[in-house]
Amino acid sequence: MLCAACDAAYWNEARLRCAVCALPLSSSRSHQGRPRGGQRHCDACLKAPPAFDATVALADYRAPLDALARGLKFRARLGLGEEFARRLARAADDALDPADAPTLIVPVPLSRERLIARGYNQAWQIAKPLARALGARADATLVRRTLHTAAQSRLDRDTRRRNVGRAFALKDGDCALRGLHIGVVDDVITSGT
């Protein structure tokens, strides 16, 4: 997908990230609390832990990798989903304790309008092969989008959180999820909402 030099420079970039939200930590902030397994956490996740336990991110959203994400999302370069899944499976194996590996993988759903316009869900194109690689079950119907919202890419961080905060619902309520460790897959993480 990339030349060897870009592949080595961007996919495998050593980056200190918060173990919960995956936001980059500066080296001056590398002293952050380590409540679990020696992992570093950002101030925000220490002060107000989110509803999820961990985030695995492949890379920062910047050139040249941002063009690959846009190719999957807007140009139907569906083979990129397999590539992202392969790399994400390796990153998950490195970042997660085997006991914390997801048993179920779900994609972030698109609204009906966006799915019809695009013809596919880019997150599902990553989630399916990722589930196979991790030996987990995949389910594209468990979470549904209840609101058609503005595109996240056009909004600032706080507006992104509010934009999707109530846009999703579980198909059968949360009782179907008890005891499962769920991995939620999206092509780009912005707010973590």
UniProtKB/TrEMBL annotation:
<protein>
    <submittedName>
        <fullName>ComF family protein</fullName>
    </submittedName>
</protein>
<dbReference type="InterPro" id="IPR029057">
    <property type="entry name" value="PRTase-like"/>
</dbReference>
<dbReference type="InterPro" id="IPR051910">
    <property type="entry name" value="ComF/GntX_DNA_util-trans"/>
</dbReference>
